[in-house]
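Hi there. Long-time user, first ticket. I'm pasting a complex I've been working with (about 229 residues overall). I'd like to know whether the download I got is complete or cut off, because the file seemed smaller than I expected. Thanks.
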Amino acid sequence: EAQVTQNPRYLITVTGKKLTVTCSQNMNHEYMSWYRQDPGLGLRQIYYSMNVEVTDKGDVPEGYKVSRKEKRNFPLILESPSPNQTSLYFCASSNLPGPIYSGANVLTFGAGSRLTVL
Amino acid sequence: QKEVEQNSGPLSVPEGAIASLNCTYSDRGSQSFFWYRQYSGKSPELIMSIYSNGDKEDGRFTAQLNKASQYVSLLIRDSQPSDSATYLCAVNPRQGGKLIFGQGTELSVKP
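Hi, the file is complete. Here it is re-exported in full:
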């Protein structure tokens, strides 16, 4: 089954304790992205990657790091989490840079990771 | 002005009615437009994509795009309680494929 897998699904941690949220896709997609979702703010992009070793900042990158060493994996790293990073996080992938009019930028989302930072 | 704007709702409609969800966007050069449905606590799932002006129908769903007025809408005919969810509008503002999401409209269909 084509899917994006995130782990952990739920995590409660404390301020300053480094954590990593893993993301893996089995669709051979080149494009992967991380979003956070907060009430009233919708989905906001944190980082994205167009290919292995190529990553770029999204709209809210502060406090996050990513890496893309393999095509299938795109982990999100919080080096020193703070309470304002409490959120619902989604990893997604798509067929970019394929033709947009063929749906290359349609995103497939992971199930989400709910993070609470105390 | 936000790049993609939606009314947050909640929008409440009776079962069997037509639900109309609207979205406006700021970049006139936007290329592609999407509606995602998100049930509470779940991930977004694609309902409709639309790329050219006019209507696109898929079952009970119709997406409408008007690039001159910079809006895209989603009509849900014969609304069912199972349609109760948050509907996210997403727009690709330019070449490169990045999607910008609206804040979502919460729809409640009452039996």
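A couple of notes from our side: Chain B has a mean pLDDT of 92. The first strand of chain B starts at residue 4 and ends at 6.
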